[in-house]
Amino acid sequence: MKTIQLxxxxxxxxxxxxxxxxxxxxxxxxxxxxxxVDNSVILKSDLDQSIAEVNHQFESQKKPVPPEQFLxxxxxxxxxxxxxxxxxxxxxxIKPNEKELNEAVMKVAxxxxxxxxxxxxxxxxxxxxxxxxxxxxxxxxxLAINRLRQQMVMSRIKISDQDVDNFLKTPQGQAAxxxxxxxxxxxISGNNNVAKVAEQVKAALKDSNDIAAIxxxxxxxxxxxxxxxxxxxxxxxxxxxxxxxxSPLQVGQTTDLIPVQDGxxxxxxxxxxxxxQKAIVPQYKARHILIQPSEVVSPENAKQQIDSIxxxxxxxxxxxxxAATFSNDPGSARDGGSLGWVNPGVMVPEFETxxxxxxxxxxxxxxxxQFGWHILQVTDTRQQDMTRxxxxxxxxQILGERQFDAELDSWLREIRSNAFVEIxxxxxxxxxxx
Length: 434
Fold this sequence. Notes:
Elements: H1 7-19, E1 33-37, E2 40-43, H2 44-60, H3 68-92, H4 98-111, H5 117-127, H6 131-154, H7 161-169, H8 171-176, E3 180-190, H9 194-207, H10 211-218, E4 223-234, H11 240-246, E5 258-260, E6 263-273, E7 280-291, H12 299-314, H13 319-326, H14 330-333, E8 338-342, H15 349-357, E9 367-369, E10 372-385, H16 387-418, E11 421-423
Helix pairs in contact: 1-2, 1-4, 1-6, 2-3, 3-6, 6-16, 7-16
């Protein structure tokens, strides 16, 4: 699925920095409240900054700047939507971690020519004290809104297995897979009897691939038949209107006649082939025992328990019995600790590293992850063709991206309509100015 790009947020933030020398970074004592949104307020200084950003966007795109009143209302609408989202952020207690925040701030720092957060902070605070802190707060909000959108909008997107199958059969799906087709392309043009000759050409193509002979036979009496053997080409390289006709064909079939401005076209599918690249991945058949610290099990006791189990395994006791008896992973404990066949990238990095480095039939020493203490055993390995699974995953991602923007717009309208909004300045209230 689509991960919302933060470049728009970063551009807005960088823009705010560029303009910060001419704006108040913090609310001034004379600041006015221009709107209430649920439990928060929008100040005049917020609106002034938003107006400057919107104005700058129009200027940078070399578009005419709208009238001032329209600009103010647009800026206020953006602030209201943003504040409504931040109210949701607070409700669900969404917070980016420090590492994620520092990486995001560093991207903005790099755009401004700073190579460290410290240098960036000094640069900004030289403009006005507190500017760097204001920026971090802004990006914190942006990241939280981004995560909120992901959680809320993605939960609204429903893609069925049938949707995936249907997409993979379309020209767009075939092109995305890198599939190629070998096509004969014939164009019939002229002034007289073009449709009749085109039908004859189509009939001839059903029985023959000799396009040179077909051209010669049917070019006469003001009708010209021109053919081309395109060889294997990616579906994405074929004009979309023609690719849509070719994609559903079986090998040996021809399209219906395609009337266009320069004549009538007909195509025949000679062969098709999928992308050469296969997704062959190593899989590990593994089982594990997990001991988690808890309110009644201290971290020290958890380590003692896993060490005791490890010693019992080395003494020859049965892994499955010990897993069923002691493991805190209920899903696998019921099956003797079995995780089945595991694909790369599924487990947390510490677990995957141990899994890859443990020989078949061997048991790892105890190791720690965010979930607790583990012992694992690899019972088998294999190379598995996951091409179909990867294709389906890619299809779901593309379909999700197509739906995301529409669902996002719908969700934003909903939270805007459900939010309590009171605009203090009558001149900015659209309802009162209709």
